Predict the 3D structure of the following.
Amino acid sequence: MNRKPSYLAALTVACALGLAAQAPQPKPVAIVGARIVPVSGADIAVGTVVFAGGKITALGVHADVPRGATIIPGKGLSVYPGMMDDSTTLGIAEVTGAAPGTVDTNELGTFNPQLISSKSVNPTSDIIGTVRANGVTTALVSMRGGVIPAQASVVDLGLYTNDEMSVERETALWINFPSASGGGRGGRGGAAPAPNANPLRELNDYLDAARRYAAVSQPDGDPRPAMAAMKPYVTGQKPVIVSVTTAADIRAALRWGREQHLKLILAGARDAWETIPEIKAAGVPVLYGPVTAMPGSENDPYDAVYSTPGELAKAGIPFALITGSAADSRNLPYNAALAEAYGLASDAALRAITLSPAEILGLDHDLGSLAMGKRANLVVTTGDPLDPRTQIKQVYVDGLLMPESKHQRLYEQWLARPDGK
């Protein structure tokens, strides 16, 4: 999706909010003499990456640097693609539990496919800055309530208006799969069903109605936006992300997706370690996480969750690592580090939070790695971004250098106070 940022619109909103607006990348930037880790190809020990107009224009050992470009000395530094969290409430959940007015994850009703998650994203969220400061530049944001809470949206974490943040508003349909145990919808944030309700039957009936609606040509000004929104999902054009937790629910979701002929993606999938053969046979990708979760049962191996990414990789199942919430998105690289400590190869761990999330959503032509023509979402570091000791020196989103986070500003403010004050 091509995006044409409006500097005037950004300036108007930013001024109203007391922010310093940023125009589109004003001139080319070249990071010279750095170690470059494209993810999609071999590392470049000492090279140059050039970006202009928000896109990478040159990359390599002898990349041409255009006249007038801003030169960033990269000696001793590394350049990585920005990380991507494919499941978060970033921008729609600020202070959970204590300030309901800052949380916009739930709407009334069980089925809301006409809603677009990114339209609720608050671009001034303080959490976005702290997440971005740790190297995460892109996220799949989704609402959480009901069975079909909304369509999930991909956003970049760098621009100051809601429209400009959006990479793809209607990326996937999010479904909280009705739990086989009857303990609520999808195991995450859903309300418990009424005593005589059959949530799965209700979901199937809804999909059947959507298929019938999709088979009939509709006039302009569609009178049923919810049904119209379902068309690309029930016809298999776009992916359906199903939030599941237990092994029983994973198996049920795989059967259901096959019966419904959906382009299925599993999300969460805590107990995927028990269902690897079934997931492999179904050919369904997995958005796995958070890796920092506890085992589902006291009888499970203590490292079941930590080691599952390595098992998915061994089985050849496409997967990405996720955090699942706004508060945890900043810890995305450490989820990958934990998976690496429990058996996932280091290159696969990095890929699971960069290129793989983009591939699973069909956006790898634009995101996830350093390559000519892709978005200039990149991170300049002192070392491996999965290592907590590494410092993130610079973050670029769409070619723009991002400002320091609120945490960094406060740190510097209080570090500089006079002794004894």
Notes: The longest strand covers residues 166-176.
